[in-house]
Amino acid sequence: MNTNNKQEPVFFSVIIVAAGKSRRFIKTDSDKPTVKKAFAMLNRKPVWLHSAEKFYERKDVAQLIIVISPDDLTWFFRFYANEIDRMFLLVVGGGKERADSVRKGLAAVRRDVDFIAVHDAARPCVSKKEIDAVFQQARIDGAALLATPIVGTVKRICNGRIVETVNRENLWEAQTPQVFRRDILLNAYECQGNTDATDDAQLVESTGYTVSVVPADRSNIKITTQTDLTLAKTILFRHNEGVLY
User: Fold this and answer.
1) Is-contact 152 166, C-beta < 8 A?
2) Whole-number mean pLDDT of the chain?
3) In Å, what is the CA distance from 179 to each residue of 30, 47, 105, 225?
4) Is the pLDDT of residue 172 over 90?
5) What is the CATH number of the domain that holds 108?
């Protein structure tokens, strides 16, 4: 009988999703061309690299995958060749919708990993402490995500007018990473059907599996607009990961 109380080692594949079109981020009316948010510079590094490095540094991450738009593959391989080699990064072309892109990433996951984490490239401020917590909860329950309780007053709007004030009790905003036992996530995607999911947890929920919530800090922002870059600089400075410009 094994009397060792230590947990058996498990390994994670991490899928970084960076295939979006960044419609709200790109300034179409600007004289200066604007790159997609995942490739925007943040403290002298592209946003996606901040996100990827959080996982590359972990001993329990056996595989790091980034999913980008097929239109960006050629220049990504050329421009980020050093980073790809340094992190043994597997680059995959994405699909039309987010779920399609994750599915492409899942097809590249190694067969010997135990868990799969999916993270938005546009969340560069996730902390090591938060990743530790959600990875550990997924090991316990099989499925877990980071989230924060909604603190503001929520209004449902139709045609520019308020039609309802929504009770915010028990309402949380989902973040990433979202982490799942390998078989749970693969099964959810196999059973997707016509489910139009906005995140991976929704697909897992649709199969009847319960996803645990790990409280996170609201500083784990998702960069959506140009203004968010300024906020992210301040957050990373607080995390001692960059220089405040």
Assistant:
1) no
2) 90
3) 38, 21, 14, 26
4) yes
5) 3.90.550.10
| Kind plus residue range of the DSSP H or E element containing 62 | strand 61-68
Q: Are 228 and 159 in contact (CB under 8 A)?
A: no
Q: Which of 116-125, 209-218, 234-243 has the lowest mean pLDDT?
A: 234-243
Is 50 exceeded by the pLDDT of residue 244?
A: no
Separation of alpha carbons 163 and 71, rounded Å:
41
Q: Which two tokens stand for residue 239?
A: 């995390």
Please state the domain count of the chain.
1
CB 102 within 8 A of CB 200: yes
Tell whether the model's pLDDT for residue 1 goes beyond 50: no
What amino acid is encoded at 45 in this protein?
Answer: K
pLDDT of residue 194: 73
The whole domain housing 43 covers 12-145+174-238
Dump the DSSP string for 17-56: EE----TTTS-TT-SS----GGGSEETTEEHHHHHHHHHH
| pLDDT tens by residue, 106-143 | 999 999 999 999 999 999 999 999 999 999 999 999 99
Give dist(CA 111, CA 103) in Å, integer.
15
| Single-letter residue type at 39 | F
| Domain membership flag for residue 107 | yes
- pLDDT of residue 31 exceeding 60: no
Q: At 109, phi and psi to the nearest 5? A: -70, 135
Q: Which tokens in the block code for residue 178?
A: 């979202």
Does 71 reside within a domain?
A: yes
Report which DSSP code applies to 125. T
Nearest to 147 by CA among 126, 122, 128: 126
| Strand 143-149 relative to strand 212-215, pairing | parallel
